[in-house]
Every structure is written in structure tokens, then in C-alpha cells.
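Minutes, project check-in
Item: structure for the 260-residue chain
Input as provided by the requester:
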Amino acid sequence: MSRRHRLDYAYALGYIKALEKYLVPLKLFLEALEAHDLEGSLKIIYESGLWPEEIIEAKKPEDIDNLSRREVEKLNLLMAELLEPEIFNFFQAEKNLFELGLRARKTGYPFFIEYSRYRHDLANIKTFLRLKYRGEAADRLEKALFSDGFIEPQIFKKAYDQPWSDLYSLLLKTDYGLLWQKSLLALAEQKTFIVMEREIENFLIRFWRRAKEITFGPEPVLAYAMARLREINLMRIITIGRMVKVPQELIKERLSETYV
């Protein structure tokens, strides 16, 4: 099957640009978090973006889960309509890292291949830190590492038995330097992986922002989809967190950057 010409995405990009106006910036999610009550949070989110009216009536986590599921389904249908099959398949493999690299290469687009390699590196970072923190055996790490990122798995293997104090410079000169240092600092001072998870999300959304520089092609279309998935998740974190009485500061710590 021949690949669609970049100019063939002109209509899709025009449609996506119109939808991008409804993406919710982080500052409005923070306003929603700090609202007086749950109803206030739901109202701010509803008025800030492209959400169905039923969000205002949500009372329990199941309501939010069902709404989120339907919004993701709508997004999937839209992407199936706007994207080539190979790129849509890549989008659907987003949560399956074993398939993501293969799907990215099949698209033939360097941007998507680069994304898959970053995802594998980030998965390796996460695995390394979690296994080392739990004191797992080194062979567990070797079996869990992906091999098609930018960082050679051997770097993680050699560093696994080093003391924590020697790890700060390990990835300092890579694209993950700031993420790595923030994650190690949070583990040392707070015994938490929340900062690592948030910084990974920040890294990825910053990557997708680069698609704005591409004039024609599927990259900005898929970037919108990733941005929409991110804000659906942020909406869930805030609303469900408030429903189950999670302290605001804990919720705020989990909120990552947005696309806009």
C-alpha cells in the first residue's frame, strides 16, 4: 500500500486545528482542582473544553470512568477516519510497547519511530529504578529491558549494582537528564515514584508539541490525539481524586504538563 502524500492531510489538519482550540491548558485544570467543591471542579472543566454535558452530573468514579471510555472511543473513531491504516495501528499500539516499535517502523515516518524509541528508553528507566528500589536480582532487570531505545541496555545492566549515590550522573548528558535527576531526588527524599511518572508524561507531551512545527502530514493529527488522551487522564485524576477525598496537594503533584 502506497503512503499518503503529506499534502493529503490538509483537510485533516484544518479539522484538528479547530479542535485544538478546545484543549484545556494546565492552569485551568489547576483552577478546577482548587474549586470549592466537586461541582465547581466539574463546571470549570466542562466550560473549559470539549466535554459532554453529562460530566456536570458525575457523582461517583464509575461515572467518570464511563465518560472517559466514551470520549476515548470517539477519539479512536476520529483517528480511524483521519489517519492511514498503518498510522492508526501505531496509535492503537500506544500502550503495547512490545508492538509499538514495529508499528512505528511500518508507518515509515521518522517522527513516530523516534517516539517509539523514547518510549522504550523511558520504560527502561522506569524498570531500572523500580527494580533497584525493591532490591530485585539483576537477572530480573536483564529480562525486562527493551533493546530498541536510544540508550543501550548494557548501560543499565552495568549500573544496577552501583550505590544510589553514584547514579546521579548516569543519564545526565542524555535527553533524560532532568527527568532522571528529579526522579532520583524524589526517591531519596520522598520515597515516591510519582515525580518520575509525572516527568515521563511531561517529556512525552513536550515531544508531541514538536509536531506543531510540521506543516503537512499525520504528525500534528496524531499529536492532537495524544494531547486529548492526556487531558482525559488529567480530568480523571482531578475528578476521581476529589470524589474519593484525596488531598489536593497529592493530586496536584500528579498533574503533568498539557499540550497547550
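Outcome recorded: Residues 15-83+218-260 form a domain with the Topoisomerase I; Chain A, domain 4 fold (CATH 1.10.132).
No further action items on this chain.
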